Fold these 3 entries.
Entry 1:
Amino acid sequence: MSLKHAILVLLETEPSSGYDLLKQFNNSLGYFWNAKHQQIYQQLKLLALDGLIDCTTEEQQGKPDKKVYKITKSGVGELTSWLSNSVKPNKINDALLVKLYGGHLTNNENLLKELEDHLLLHKTTLIQLRQIEQKYLKFSPEVQEKYKLPYITLRRGILGEEAWLDWALESIKMIKK
Amino acid sequence: MSLKHAILVLLETEPSSGYDLLKQFNNSLGYFWNAKHQQIYQQLKLLALDGLIDCTTEEQQGKPDKKVYKITKSGVGELTSWLSNSVKPNKINDALLVKLYGGHLTNNENLLKELEDHLLLHKTTLIQLRQIEQKYLKFSPEVQEKYKLPYITLRRGILGEEAWLDWALESIKMIKK
DNA sequence: ATGATCAATGCAATTTATTGCATAATAAAA
DNA sequence: TTTTATTATGCAATAAATTGCATTGATCAT
């Protein structure tokens, strides 16, 4: 279970609300960690109960109140100790591949449609990731050095999406042939 | 939820026991679907209750009894209908990337060790996938045509692992620098 | 004016997945 | 000879994730 640690990692950079975290999960972090809002809010509650984060309520005009969470010393301790242990290899469960694997029970149009729908999504993602990369590459060497590790995770997204697209194009050709 | 459908897809090819399925999930299908034995056995029970699969018990000498499951007409129906709908894009939750993202709280040796451990696993997987591909490429054109769709999923595994390795090597260099 | 989207959070119920424990026989390896 | 791996299955408890429903006030578009 590392939703907990994904949240702690984000809060270690800066205090945020559940909604802020949600946006981070949906945008920048989305290519390596996904979570729904309910999951985040529940987890924040648990983390606060365990004393790993602190909560303060901010009132806002015209908008609902905001609960801002901040990592505690104990939270940093938990995170550091988690980092010192090895993580499990990523579990892959890809329904699209299940569908292709059993695709002889349906028609090629259906499979091609599905592939092309996903293709669009992946193309969009890749464009976004490359835009983030362009920003990073314009930073000074010092700033680049500072954000080296997040950049490495961004590269994973880019190389991963490129490979996905290569595969999809190759597959579409193969199915059409 | 497509563990259900992953199982139906496998049973549509040939009747199998839970243990047989487990081996398929751990070997060939492992690069796109993972499940533990408890999950498979429970799901088989539910599928049988729903009449999507049938069960017959085979006695064996020297080994425990084997329950062989076979897909029913109703099961093929369910599978076909699932195939006609679109599937959700794959959800990625990769703890290794979370660790790297927050890696400034630990030391580079730790990160490099972790990356190299994963590297070994991915290398092994890639070798296995390539071996399967070699076998496929020796088939006659007719047989290749027949297994085209599973081959496409295999290609996903190969391209995915290659991209993973490229990324890891690049990342290791970047961290060492 | 009416519906849609964004900001912000939450409860409750259900579904899925994981962990821990348990059995039992055979064969192969240390 | 003792331990480990393989074959084969399962229950029970817990943990994690998903789905459905709900609120409120602002702004933005039709």
Entry 2:
Amino acid sequence: MPELPEVETVRRGLARLVVGKQIASVSVYESPKSFPNSPEDVEQFVRGATITAVNRRAKVLLVSLSSDYMFVIHLKMTGQLVYVGKERFGAGHPNDSLIGVLPDRSTRVSIHFSDDTTLFFNDQRKFGWVKLYPTIEVPNIDFMQKVGPEPLEDDFTAAVMAGRLRHRNNTTIKAALLDQSVIAGVGNIYADESLWGAKIHPATRVRDVSDAQLAVLHDELVSVLALSIEKGGSTNHTYVNAEGQRGSYMDFARVFRRDELACPRHPDVLIEKLRVAGRGTHICPVCQVLPTATLR
DNA sequence: CACTTGACCTGTCCGC
DNA sequence: TGCGGACAGGTCAAGT
């Protein structure tokens, strides 16, 4: 999915909708990959507990329980967390919803609350997961140990970003941006969008990007992530927020999935699609040119 | 270590 | 209409 802005949008929705709710039961439709914990764990550490907070680190959601356990959730490519009140989705639901009546065939887990409302974890491709950990152990999870800084925190300066990217001088700037141990939360959409903003070709070796260009890239990345959160994230295919609604950032995208359309800076130049770091990549061939050093 | 590639899944779209 | 292949917001475990 779901990159930083989408996960943050889900987080904000859940913080509003489920904090304070008491968990009555958990249904697991697909295990062990989507939900590796045992029914005994659920009985002991989840049933009867209250949700006390919903936080985010990189693309991971952290749902705190009053039992001092935590749901750690990764939506990967197609995961959704959708809260449904007493009235089911489907007929009569807001028209920007992509969700029909739940559970559906993509539902992997559902959490039923004592007020008869439900939080559904849906995931078409089954890459995502929900894992239960003792809260005290979460900082020791391998991912938490190696994940990079949050790009929207105040201390994420251009110098911090450049310092981290310089450790990956021998790979492409796009691969470095996508590396969660370098910067937290950047995925394919916002890598392409920020590189277009900074006029850097995604296949440029990091060592061939100047410090001045990295400073521009920093500002572009921070502003595009903030704008996307403001727009409720990007709905490319399956992403929805905690109420089943789409995000609108794709209406503001400059290059992502805009191949064969005009570059916003060059009305007569078409966006091209290529493959960089194994991912579909969108560029303006005039704004974003590979430096000769990288070409060698 | 740093880096690249394929695998994990299901669904959709496109060409034959 | 059906079939095969490529591709899709993300990581991982392997390989070099």
Entry 3:
Amino acid sequence: MTGGQTLRSATEVRTYSNDKELVGQRRYYIAEQAVKVFQDKGYERTTMRDIGKACGMAPGSLYHYIGSKQDILHLICVRFAPGADAYRRYLSTLGDVSKTEQLRKCIAYYFRVIDSSRHVVSFFNREGYRLAEEDRDYVVASEVDRQSFFEQILREGIEAGEFQVSNTALVAYNIMIYAQTWVLRKVFLRNRFTFTLEEYTEEQTRILLDTVAIRNCHVDKIE
Amino acid sequence: MTGGQTLRSATEVRTYSNDKELVGQRRYYIAEQAVKVFQDKGYERTTMRDIGKACGMAPGSLYHYIGSKQDILHLICVRFAPGADAYRRYLSTLGDVSKTEQLRKCIAYYFRVIDSSRHVVSFFNREGYRLAEEDRDYVVASEVDRQSFFEQILREGIEAGEFQVSNTALVAYNIMIYAQTWVLRKVFLRNRFTFTLEEYTEEQTRILLDTVAIRNCHVDKIE
Amino acid sequence: MTGGQTLRSATEVRTYSNDKELVGQRRYYIAEQAVKVFQDKGYERTTMRDIGKACGMAPGSLYHYIGSKQDILHLICVRFAPGADAYRRYLSTLGDVSKTEQLRKCIAYYFRVIDSSRHVVSFFNREGYRLAEEDRDYVVASEVDRQSFFEQILREGIEAGEFQVSNTALVAYNIMIYAQTWVLRKVFLRNRFTFTLEEYTEEQTRILLDTVAIRNCHVDKIE
Amino acid sequence: MTGGQTLRSATEVRTYSNDKELVGQRRYYIAEQAVKVFQDKGYERTTMRDIGKACGMAPGSLYHYIGSKQDILHLICVRFAPGADAYRRYLSTLGDVSKTEQLRKCIAYYFRVIDSSRHVVSFFNREGYRLAEEDRDYVVASEVDRQSFFEQILREGIEAGEFQVSNTALVAYNIMIYAQTWVLRKVFLRNRFTFTLEEYTEEQTRILLDTVAIRNCHVDKIE
DNA sequence: CATGAATGAGGTTTCATTCAT
DNA sequence: TATGAATGAAACCTCATTCAT
């Protein structure tokens, strides 16, 4: 997937209800609540009764909007595996700043967004392996899209003479995993993980910018 | 936890058998097979029958060696969440080389070990949240131990004048997550993840060493 | 039950509506549609939603005309388990013909009617066992009435010296089951049941008339 | 299917158990008990708990021997839809008697067998429509086999100069439906169906033999 | 009167665990 | 010790019925 284009919409799930508007809203709501409940108990241990309770509905009522428990996985993928569109929009608001500044700001923004969607990150990390082939492809495509967003900034920085990067894909990958593992390790290590988001963002950004910065060192040393 | 000391042994599981030796072997074997089977279907979807089949035993026979299905999680933690002892032994074989070389070698070794225990990495990533408090603490301690192993090298490098690191914990953390995400993303992204282990190791090591290298740049520039 | 009298009307079902005329029409309509839908999926597997769809109504609307799903069984019995009145009317139109001709014509007419109400025959065959005692009695009475209709013709034929029948009940019974099994086996055997209705009617009528015909054989032989 | 050859065995159902011997016995037993329970409540209304109770087993235990509730239908077909082999064996024990006597005896035997398997007859009549295509084919084949058994006797009777039959298939069909409807109407009409099996057999046999008997009547009349 | 969203009882099925052999 | 048949609790899911709109 090349950056910027909209991700294909996934297939619809079977429902009993006919009111498209209502069904759409409820599906979104169910996916939203379910992904939170999955956080605590995982997909298998979470019962439809649990999900119903989280949604304020009787278990049977869920089936007006979804076809099966498995379909909830699908809904979550469609709703919560966004590509890089939001980041591209954010980038366009930054105005006329250096590529270094663009990268710094986008990283910070990305870290904040990921941090605020802990449930989703945990969910995909844990349950990703049980997704249907099609849903997995969708999620992978959304990740690849976000990765390519950061690569694009890196390449533009190289062209602008600001960056020096031997492997843009790997650096973009590192940005992604810094964000992802922030969530995962915060969840897993709990109080043994002592960074605040701001500290973590600042330190990792410093390391990243070091990595991509032009080095005059050797030239200087010669002098 | 400070590096070097042995991790506390976890509590024993209840068994029917009296032959301690045999029971110990079988437990290890069951944990070993189970963690492989969990890879495909996850903990919940894996039945005791599945595990029995993987072990060449009848499902009832498993209960001579384990107390419950949940106990298998415990066994896996005890068996497969090693601290840094193996790495310390490896380090001691390297002889008289620079700290930079030590770090480079230990990273490569660490990446190889992690790569060869994909099942275990996937398992802890996916099922970690369902561990008993005690087991989770054990696993966390083993990770902290390994992290402190790398921190130790970094600190020694700083003392030796080879490294310049503002946040040793974070750099050690990065080494750990580079290794961990190598496995996770290889599993999740499949053929869209195109690095070989050697390429990945080399590139990430270069970035890491850049990060910790002494910079004369700024000083020189001032001149 | 002796032939000719009207079958007792079954008890009314509870409804919400007050417009007796409309309610009566709708009830008939619902029974008519339902019996068709039951053909495919049987009573239990047919949902109120299915029946509603077949009637062009929302499932909730059905309950303005019926009291429960079970009531539909009752309605079908009342509407579609007719006695022999229609056959008596038909018989009265035949004019002045021999009893043999009356029997032949009535059998053909009966077979045609039964053939055109396959759904109903299949329904009673399959679901008869689950009818309420009262409804079952009603259906049985309607069958007995039809059987007695044919018996009446046979007895008249005997009195007229045209027939010689040792067991009128059994011959009448055979006429009934020839018609009924025509439908049932056509449905069950499908393309392995190769008779057309006309062939089947002709052949079975021949056998029946053989059975009831006066035999002069022995007398002739004496000559 | 031509007479005499063994009906193909239907596909096996999935089971948890490995003991072929035990599984075979239990399957037979379950089918046998289930078909009785279906008699009262029909397939859909019969719960697995009901079937388990009838078998003296817990509901879960049934699934060691069957794959699903639907599979019970399959088992019943395989176990209780016999071809004509038993009748052919019976015929071979009759010794040297006329074809008329053979037919009479076989009809009586057939009626007795059918009468003693009421449950099965009712079952196939009621639930036949929901059988899998393959199972339905199997049952139909068994019926066709039995029909062809009677046709064979009729044809041999014609060759022997004992019978005169215009449509052997239809006469054989009538024998079958006389037997089948004996059960069905006894169940449905209950106390309004007043024949005993012996009366019913005798009367229907008389009618059948009349139908197939050589008629000298017309020849005599010509004289 | 008509609708269809909501309910929740009850069905089939799975599977960890036990225990007689 | 090893087995695997048996258990029964609990899961997902369906659908007759109700009732606010």
